[in-house]
Amino acid sequence: MSAVNGVTGADRPIRVLLADDQHLVRTGFRVILEVEDDIEVVGEAADGERAVGMTRALHPDVVLMDVEMPGMDGLEATRRITAPDAPDGPAVLILTTFDRDDYLFAALSAGASGFLLKNGTPESLIEAIRVVARGDGLLAPELTRKVIATFARPGAAAGGTSRAGSAAALEDLTPREQQVLVLIARGASNAEIAVDLSLGEATVKTHVSRVLAKLGLRDRVQAVVFAYEHGVVRPGG
């Protein structure tokens, strides 16, 4: 992902591509985002195919992606944008009016870094873009609870949702990193992990980064799914 705001420096704004088949929706998002000094809308796409092509041409940091679009939908577009053979791809933030489990888990499987409902506030959208641009994964709080609740059900851990990570890579984690992964899977924030393990937040951030790198995961959203799929956290545990 093209990192910004503290990763490559705050000398340029977060470049955002809008992908939605409704012109009025794209216009509304543009109006909301362009008043922010640290965000720049670099293009608009009305379908998934154009979103993929414009991503490759414009190199945005974040793609704000609708799910239901004519032709190629947002989920397939997300798979292509985040494919392993697409280096330095952007983070994809899925936005939809549909609070449906199948969209949620399909978006995570496709490689999305965040998932928000369109009934959220402008402030939550702006913050979500900043979060995924930093390289962190994000779900609306109610959706985070849904992910954890779904994977915590008996028999749910074998669904094969994540697109990255290997069970063998778990052996490369230090005992401390294994503890951090467990706490991530339980939905703990960096601040909560720091308290639980009596560490500084900067140290926790370093551990989280190492866990993601060793497991080949994009963000902590994938880490939650990975941990349940591979038995790091047991259903009901």
Automatic annotation (TrEMBL):
SUPFAM superfamilies attached here? Answer: C-terminal effector domain of the bipartite response regulators, CheY-like
Q: Where is the HTH luxR-type domain?
A: 166-231
Q: Which residues carry this modification: 4-aspartylphosphate?
A: D66
Entries under InterPro entries matching the protein? CheY-like_superfamily (IPR011006), NreC/VraR/RcsB-like_REC (IPR058245), Sig_transdc_resp-reg_C-effctor (IPR016032), Sig_transdc_resp-reg_receiver (IPR001789), Tscrpt_reg_LuxR_C (IPR000792), WalR-like (IPR039420)
Can you name one GO molecular function term for this protein? DNA binding
Name the UniProt key words of this record, in alphabetical order.
DNA-binding, Phosphoprotein, Transcription, Transcription regulation
Provide the transmembrane region boundaries.
Answer: none
The Response regulatory domain covers 15-133
The record ties this protein, via PANTHER family, to: TRANSCRIPTIONAL REGULATORY PROTEIN NARL-RELATED, TWO-COMPONENT RESPONSE REGULATOR
Q: What name goes with this protein?
A: DNA-binding response regulator
